[in-house]
What we know:
The protein is an alpha/beta fold and 279 residues long. 42% of the residues lie in helices and 20% in strands. It has helices spanning 6-14, 19-29, 43-46, 52-63, 80-89, 100-112, 151-161, 200-210, 221-238, 246-249, 253-265; strands at residues 70-74, 92-97, 119-123, 136-142, 162-175, 212-219, 269-278.
Amino acid sequence: MTDMTVEQLVAQHYGRDGLEPAILAALTEAGKDIAHLDPVDLAGIDEFHLGWRAQMMALAERLGLGRGDHVLDIGAGIGGPARCFAASYGCTVMGIDLTPEFVAVAEALTLRCGLSDQVSFLQGSALELPFGIAAFEAATLIHVGMNIKDKATLFAEARRVLKPGGRFGVYDVMFAEDMVALPYPMPWAASPEASFVDTPATYRRLLTLAGFAIEGEANRRDFTLDLSREMRARAAESGRPGLGLHVIMGPAAKDRLRNVMDALERNMIAPIEIIARAV
């Protein structure tokens, strides 16, 4: 490991020069009006997680998101879930992300979707959230915990900024059964130095210690694999879509996506959803 901190390694892993022009070029080639985008237009690019947009809609339903809710998306990426929540459920969303390039692109795409009055973004750390106590009715953590070793502080910070009774939706890649050695690179890390995949039991324990009551847990592996098979079948018929996660990940996408889907197929990992409530 170099002298860089883990957070610097993570930001470096996700950052990519020319990301916004690459996204706009892919959208233009797909026939989208980049001056007036709909969040649905971006779903193939900015839902950077297993289960994609279908999982985000299901998560929002289970969290009971609605108009008037102030929602914090911790580790917002380029803003896909935040825009999805705002456009579909009428809530106001603040996204925070470690990677400066992601924050800049999130803001630019949100403006093109006409959602800047509902959705905004800040660059910052999930371990030191720049918000006051009880500032939000709900929070989400979507494929972020794999990059954070200190999950106790992560969950304590989430609890601090949530109102009593606030809902916390965690959707992370976790070990399906035993803790095993994973293949790298993965979408969230090029090597084990920045990867902190853990078990659902650890999540439950640390969430409870942070002041949350666990209200539900679901393994979304089968759901994700079914969607993946449908996507591959469509691609076999009509070719790989121009709007995909390869636009964000660049040349590394093929190896990263192959490894994560292989580990998923072998039941080494699973995308796990946990719904918790601040007590």
